[in-house]
């Protein structure tokens, strides 16, 4: 076997480096929440009827200028492995259940538009729950 540098391999093959997340799930959620909170008055588009979509359509559901778009616009989250702004990719990347993601992006909670501050609060709530139920109780009722 002949040893070749990565540059040499580019001439004979397509070499793709797989992103290895360095941030924890909670850190990724906190980063998304921070991005949403940065422009809290920004009007974002909700995804319509995610709970009524078939699993296949839900995976590829997206909307321009959605809370998912805010996450995908961030170079840091893309470096961590966020591949696009679809519902399925956000569920995978942020390790969310359908119920959790539905609560952040679906139009049945807010109508067709969402204020970024509202989405930020929903993501913040999920991140706090991820730190443990006791931490969530403390933060919710004692602060």
UniProtKB/TrEMBL annotation:
It comes from the Bacteria. This is Uncharacterized protein. It comes from Mesorhizobium zhangyense.
């Amino acid at each position: 076997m002949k040893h070749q540098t990565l540059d040499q391999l580019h001439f004979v093959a397509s070499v793709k480096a797989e992103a290895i997340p360095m941030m924890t799930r909670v850190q990724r959620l906190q980063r998304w929440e921070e991005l949403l909170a940065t422009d809290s008055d920004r009007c974002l588009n909700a995804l319509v009827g995610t709970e009524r979509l078939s699993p296949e359509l839900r995976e590829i559901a997206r909307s321009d200028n959605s809370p998912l778009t805010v996450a995908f616009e961030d170079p840091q989250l893309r470096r961590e492995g966020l591949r696009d702004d679809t519902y399925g990719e956000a569920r995978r990347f942020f390790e969310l259940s359908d119920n959790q993601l539905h609560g952040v992006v679906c139009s049945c909670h807010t109508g067709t538009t969402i204020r970024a501050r509202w989405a930020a609060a929903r993501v913040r709530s999920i991140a706090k729950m991820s730190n443990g139920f006791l931490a969530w109780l403390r933060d919710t009722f004692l602060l």
